[in-house]
């Protein structure tokens, strides 16, 4: 087979049953889902660790005697991110344990 026939064979509609099917919609969906998941993880960790000083600053201010009222600004966002982070980790662990039991 010469080079021209191999080039034209790339565009033929004959499908080999041994070759896996390629669907561009699945690839695009995978890219979008991965980007959304990475964005959610970034938002969660940023809110937990950086927003208005982060959760560690709130914990430090809670135990310090000289902490002012401004040390607790944004505490709701930090605590909500902490709760969401714990819920996500618990759900992932539950899924992992469930999948591990099914594995042979």
Give a nutshell description of this structure:
With 104 residues, the chain is mainly α. It has four helices and no strands. The two termini are 46 Å apart.
Share of helical residues: 55-70%
Strand share of the residues? under 5%
Q: Main β-sheet: number of strands, strand sense, barrel status?
A: none
- Rg value: 25 Å
Reading the helices and strands in chain order gives: HHHH
Return the structural class.
Answer: mainly alpha
| Beta-strand segment tally | 0
Shape: elongated
Number of domains: 1
The average pLDDT is 86
Multimerization state: single chain
Terminal Cα separation, in Å? Answer: 46 Å
Q: How would you characterize the overall build of this protein?
A:
The chain is mostly helical. It has one domain (22-102). 68% of the residues lie in helices and 0% in strands. It contains four helices and no strands. Helix 2 (24-49) crosses helix 4 (75-102). The longest helix has 28 residues, at 75-102. It is elongated, with a radius of gyration of 25 Å. The mean pLDDT is 86.
Topology, element by element:
Layout: H1 3-9, H2 24-49, H3 54-63, H4 75-102
Features:
104 residues; mainly alpha
């Amino acid at each position: 087979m010469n080079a021209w026939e191999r080039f034209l064979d790339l565009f033929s509609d004959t499908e080999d049953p041994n070759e896996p099917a390629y669907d561009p919609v699945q690839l695009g969906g995978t890219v979008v889902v991965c980007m959304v998941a990475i964005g959610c993880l970034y938002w969660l960790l940023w809110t937990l660790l950086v927003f208005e000083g982060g959760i560690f600053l709130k914990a430090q201010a809670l135990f310090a005697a000289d902490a002012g009222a401004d040390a607790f600004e944004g505490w709701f966002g930090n605590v909500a991110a902490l709760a969401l982070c714990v819920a996500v980790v618990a759900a992932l662990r539950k899924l992992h344990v469930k999948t591990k039991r099914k594995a042979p």
